[in-house]
Amino acid sequence: MRPVVRIVADKVGVAGSLVSTMSCAMCFPAMASIGAAIGLGFLTRWESVFVHVLIPVFVLLALFANALGWLSHRQWHRSLLGSIGPVVALIGWLAFIRGWLPANGARGVLYAGLIIMLLAAIWDLISPANRHCAVDGAGLAGKRG
Length: 145
What we know:
With 145 residues, the chain is an all-alpha fold. 71% of the residues lie in helices and 0% in strands.
């Protein structure tokens, strides 16, 4: 995956997840109040679609982009840290939908995952990843066996 496509996919996944939670007043009141303050209150009529379809799609998109980031920059710690947020958000979403945790606990896990995703996206914008891998034979130009 080309680095620009990965970066865009990651940011779209993060932004989509945040907007999806901002549109669900009944499920995620803290995020919904932020969404209403910035004018996203009209999205509440599609709350079910956002909760059941779009949140997991955008979280999986961000997870996929971070997992494929390994192919472009070869930094396992960066890919791992970028993947933690979507995994935690997905666990929180599943706990909320399936009722594995009380609603407040599941929301807390989902919020934690979204915050981690947002921080990882900001970190990626501030300090973009560079490829850290050796080119085969680059250090052996002057040596003979």
